[in-house]
Design a protein that fits this description.
By secondary structure, the protein is mainly alpha-helical. It has a domain at 10-55. The chain has helices spanning 29-34, 49-55; strands spanning 10-11, 18-19. The protein has a two-stranded antiparallel sheet. It is elongated, with a radius of gyration of 15 Å. The structure holds zinc ion. Zinc ion (ZN) is lined by residues 12, 14-15, 17, 46-47, 51.
């Protein structure tokens, strides 16, 4: 069985955008087992890296003393 499962209509797990050409998915086994909840990978399908980062609660932290615009 392929993971994530390719379906006829797929949408991004974060923004729900419909996907047609390609998608981003996480291959890390720990995250697949412990973080994502659907066995078929339904919630491990994203339209781009930004949506994936948001879904994983990744955020940018400004380092003190660094130059900011
Ligand atoms: Zn998205």
């Amino acid at each position: 069985m392929t993971y994530p499962k390719i379906k006829e209509s797929m949408c991004c797990a974060h923004c729900q955008k419909e996907l047609s050409d390609s998608f981003v998915t996480v291959r890390d086994n720990f995250l697949i087992v412990k973080f994502f909840q659907f066995a078929d990978g339904e919630d491990n399908i994203f339209c781009d890296n930004d949506c994936l980062a948001n879904y994983l609660s990744a955020e940018e932290i400004l380092i003190e003393g660094s130059e900011q615009e």
